[in-house]
Amino acid sequence: MSIRPICITGDPVLHTPALEVTVFDDSLRTLVQDMFETMDEAPGVGLAAPQVGVNLRVFVYDWDKEDGTPQRGVVINPKLELSETPSGEPEWETESEGCLSVPGERFPLKRAERATLTGVDLDQNPVRIDAEGWFARIFQHEFDHLNGTLYVDRLAEPYKTDASNVVTERGWGIPGLSWLPGEERLEG
After folding, report:
1. Three-class SS of residue 48?
2. Is the pLDDT of residue 188 over 60?
3. Dmax of the chain from CA atoms?
4. Which spans in 21-111 are helix H?
5. Does residue 78 register a pLDDT over 70?
6. What is the spatial distance between Cα 76 and Cα 101, in angstroms, rounded to a whole number?
7. Which residues are catalytic?
């Protein structure tokens, strides 16, 4: 297994809806193992296949509940049902997100408090997870990746402009840029 480069905003795979998984084979198992390894090395709490340049509807996650219970898994061809997203301004302290495809940056974003995630695992067994709080936020963030949306695309002003300025200042927003967890430099 190996750590894969993570695509940076601007790469077309990040801005294109991912394809349904139709073949459950050893190459899919290898992809998922590589995604776990990459997520752990980054480190992150979730990683979608498009972030490692693979246009498939797959994501992995790793989050400890408030009671310390680990929640780690993979969901393939997910569906997501959400509670209503609260109105108002996002709280910087409690609602700021980061993204491995916009490395090193964080911005506040309103998300639904509860989510129900369904899909299948690597053995095509049904998966259903009811999540709330940050766990629900992780699912929404990764599900967005599968639809070609990054969290910075959802930001309200003034954060949307701030994120756009960061992308421009760092020379991102173009195809072919990536970074490899464990290395400090960006590849392009």
Report:
1. strand
2. no
3. 46
4. 26-41, 92-95
5. yes
6. 20
7. 142
